[in-house]
Amino acid sequence: GGAASLFSHLAAKPAEQASGGATAAAPAAAPATPPGPAAVAAAASAGSLAAATAPSGTAGAGAAVSPRQQHLDECAKQVSRLEEVEASLQGFKKDASHKDFRLRAKKGVNTKVSQISATWNRIRDCTTGLCETLAQLLQDPDALKRQFVEYAAAERLADDAEVGIKAQPRAAWPVAQVVVRVFAKFPAVEELFWGFMYKACPYLVPNFSGSRLGRTGPAPGQRPDEPFVDFADRMVSYQRLQLAILVTREELGPVWQWLARTLNEPPAPITATLLHAALEMAGADAQARYRQQFLKLVEYIHRDYMPELEALQGKVRGEEADQLRASLSRLRLWLEEFRGRGRRRAPPPNGRQIDVTEESEISTDY
Fold first, then answer.
1. What's the whole-model pTM score?
2. What average pLDDT does range 210-227 have in this prediction?
3. Half-sphere exposure of 191 (CA within 13 A, CB side)
4. CA distances to 213, 228, 244, 275 from 269, in Å
5. Region annotation Disordered: residue ranges (predicted)?
């Protein structure tokens, strides 16, 4: 259906609040820095998160595009760009005369990515090796070969959500350390990477279209005959990689935006799973940045959003019910731990601290 169809639903109509049935404005992108979080938190304390995330200005001819719509358009653009590259490479991928180059490029990238582990020595070596491999391959005068190299690198880095991070969630952190340094050197790889990520997991946008209660068929991103629990685990793995990259870059604005948009929509069966992972992966850093505003956001989750998730639990059946029940249990435990840590502190994510402190040896100048 094309990239635009993946994201267009979010602009369709306002979200309906669970309490009182009042209609609130659809969520917009919260600004990356205060007063965005402050406004969201103030509304949360008043019981209406939507009010703080509504687009500024009025609708109609000549109205400025809201930050939320700009975000949706940018996500759609990155997926479209990926699809354009895939189309342009169709012939190249089938051309037998380029088989050796394709194998060499994919092997070079895969070898270095597969060697990433949670020590600064290994992060440095893998970053250096991967950047050198890409730089060498991208010297080829054939434009299609260069495009294939960028495509293959982006694909392999995004695939690590399913290759390594799904099996070991804490692996997201060392992978993110390498990824951000590769992106600094090769921005074209980053552009394609986000296309892969949004296409594989639309909930990163976030886009919950087609995943609501009562849908027919698989949820967006779910493979044919894939059990819902396995599907949810895969989606969370993509989310962990995204969040680890954002936190490593200290780009917490998009994290806040994701929370605001998600909490301003009625929950889907997969929402609790993703919300718990977001708090687990990025809660400590978001709290350090936004402080009191984050406390109010967590209070909003506890007071207003948890009842919505619990109400949904009584309506879902089968594997979705099992997944939601387990995710709600984990979410309650996180909230209890948060509220029980003296001055209310988000627990640090597992694996965030890299084992060997040789960070001074890491740079993007390769």
1. 0.81
2. 88
3. 15
4. 7, 10, 24, 11
5. 16-39, 343-366
